[in-house]
Specification:
Blueprint: H1 4-15, H2 18-22, H3 32-39, H4 58-70, H5 79-83, H6 91-100, H7 116-123, H8 148-159, H9 180-191
Helix pairs in contact: 4-6, 7-9, 8-9
Length: 196
């Protein structure tokens, strides 16, 4: 049975016309299509591993691209650090404009929400920075209509100091005493809220 998978794969590859692969030229495609492989062409990804970028604040997208380029920010497996090196400096404004001007993703169903996430988000004062008001704190992201799994992981990474927050001294220290279960509740709450 194991032998069938390699044979099937080989047969498929043999059926792909050579010139179609040989003629591929990434310079003929907009730079944002590289990002779209993970984040979706219109900024809505199909997995919680990759954040939704549609309708995100442009200054935030640009800041994160530059953080990955400089090595200030890393991620699991180093995918972003590798991918951003494929972008030319002149590509970054194009990528930023494309994703920031797409329609925001739809909120996710709030079936699992208990009310604890909303209450804790308010209690911790997160809304002070992570407001949904357009134009406020341009380098602080919208968290709404984001994958709950992505949000929960990022909060845990901030809490456990796997993600650096030196650019904003004192930022996210309120997460230090928050349990995984409550962070999951906050993530579920935020994912179900509309993004402006």
């Amino acid at each position: 049975m194991d032998q069938m998978v390699p044979r099937a794969a080989a047969a498929f590859l043999m059926s792909v016309p050579g010139p179609a692969l040989a003629d591929y030229d990434p310079s003929q495609y907009p730079a944002y299509e590289t990002c779209a492989l993970c984040h979706g062409l219109f900024g809505v990804s199909h997995t919680a591993k990759f954040p939704n970028l549609g309708g995100q604040k442009p200054a935030y997208i640009e800041a994160q691209l530059n953080a990955f380029l400089s090595g200030y920010r890393t991620n699991d497996g180093g995918q972003m650090a590798t991918i951003v090196t494929e972008l030319m400096p002149e590509d970054i404004p194009l990528v930023v404009e494309w994703f920031s001007t797409q329609d925001p993703p739809e909120p996710y169903p709030a079936d699992q929400a208990t009310g604890l996430g909303e209450a804790t988000f308010a209690e911790l004062g997160c809304i002070g920075c992570h407001t949904n008001a357009v134009g406020e704190m341009p380098e602080v992201p919208f968290l709404t209509a984001q994958h709950a799994g992505y949000l929960a992981k990022q909060m845990k990474d901030f809490r456990d100091q796997r993600r650096d927050v030196a650019a904003f001294p004192g930022m996210h220290t309120e997460l230090l005493a928050v349990s995984d279960d409550i962070l999951d509740e906050i993530a579920i709450y935020l994912s179900a809220q509309p993004r402006p």
